Each structure stands twice: as structure tokens, then as C-alpha cells.
Amino acid sequence: YTNGARFQSTSWVSEDAGGQYNADSQSADKFLWENRDFIAIYSAGNNGTSGSNTVAAPSTAKNVISVGASTDSLQPSVALFSGQGPTFDGRIKPDIVAPGENICSSRAEEAMTSLGSDCTAAFHSDGTTPLHTSLSGASQATPVVSGAAVLTRQFLREELGVSSPASDLIKAILIHGAE
Description:
Distance between the termini: 32 Å
Oligomer: single chain
Number of helices: 3
Strand order of the largest sheet: 1-2-3-4
Shape: globular
Order of helices and strands: EHEEEEEHH
């Protein structure tokens, strides 16, 4: 924050603290309360198959943008694996969902050859390791929302002249604009 950063996009969570408002959640809320123009975006986790109250901390924080995963079907819905709300204290989470199923992304040459599946015909210099992998999870959905938040902030600053848009305004725009 001191060096000008105003975004945090985080695809890791505490899977064992589903639905709970814990110390990580409290720490995020405290920082965001003190720095109103900072936007923290967290994955809701992937424990949704366990039922409700499975949003993982710190995505349970009140001031963060909590992101769940949607399916890639013709009739999109919240993916079964995505963290499900409400939180244990009754708040609606995740705040928003984005595509998180079968997302094609790059991978390192030495990375996780057993995870995901090849989703392109491009290969690393070794000729056998795919450049891309297809994965599903709220971790894949979180950068989608982060990109939308960055573009929203840029629009507010450059087109509307809002010098330092508050994170709650950006959160409200994202939620209001969701389908």
C-alpha cells in the first residue's frame, strides 16, 4: 500500500475454516477499514460439496470481495465445488461468482504435470510438456473478478474523474452489474 498498490487478488484460503469469521478475516477487515481505497479480492474456496457455510476465510471478511466459481454450461450456475454461503453469522457470501470451471491457463515447464489437462496444442521447448492446463476452482474465478475490478477502478478514475475510488463503491458496481 505504501508503494501505491491498491489491489490484492488472492486465490488461497483457509479451507479448514469454512464459514467462520476468523483472525485472517478480522485482519483483512481492519486493513481495509483503515485504507478505504484498497481492494482485496479472495477466493471463496472449493468446499461447496460439503453444503452451506463452506466459504473459506479470509473470504468471510465483511469488506473483501468474496469470489465463487460458476459453471461453464449453457445455463451457468454456481459450481457445486465452489464455497457456499451463508457465513456462520448469516452474511451472504460469496459476493459474486465468475467462470471457474475448465479455465485454460499457462503452467511452468516443471509444474504439476499430473494436474489438469492440456487445453492447447502449444508445448514448452522440450516438445512434450504442454504450455497450458485446464483447471477448475474458485481460484480460477478470482482473477476474472480482479480484472473487472481493475477496469472498473480505471473507468472511475479516467472517465469520471474520481481520484481515489473507494473499494466499497467498486464492490457495489461489480455486484450491481452481475447477471
